[in-house]
Write a structure and sequence with these properties.
Blueprint (H helix, E strand, L loop, with lengths): L1 E2 L5 E2 L8 H4 L6 H17 L9 H10 L11 H10 L10 H6 L1
Pfam families: Pkinase
InterPro entries: Kinase-like_dom_sf, Prot_kinase_dom, Ser_Thr_kinase
GO molecular function: ATP binding; protein serine/threonine kinase activity
């Protein structure tokens, strides 16, 4: 367990879902879609993105990286889906249904 600057404890395992909270912009559909992408990576690889980092460095990478590392061996369709999930700037009404249709 790590502690952030406000002395709050941070448990591992929920780091991707904290993206919008870290950026101080609140939880939204975009952060939920980001979490879906991370869950897909974990289901396919048996480890979540940034699993090899301690919580605070992982939080830094979540905010600073364009997207989490996407494994090379995935199909083009899954890779495209993950790229869509990890877009930090999305249309105001974008939802997971829209991403699955593209």
């Amino acid at each position: 367990m790590a502690y952030c600057a406000c002395n709050c404890s941070i448990e591992s395992g929920t780091l991707p879902s904290l993206l919008k909270v870290i950026e101080m912009s609140g939880v939204s559909a975009a952060s939920d879609i980001w979490s879906v992408g991370c869950t897909v990576i974990e289901l396919l690889t048996c480890v979540p993105p940034y699993y090899d980092l301690q919580p605070m460095p992982a939080l830094f990478r979540i905010v600073s990286d364009e997207q989490p590392p996407i494994p090379d061996r995935l199909s083009p369709g899954i890779t495209d889906f993950l790229h869509q999930c990890f877009r930090k700037v999305r249309l105001p009404k974008c939802c997971l249904y829209d991403i699955c249709r593209t």
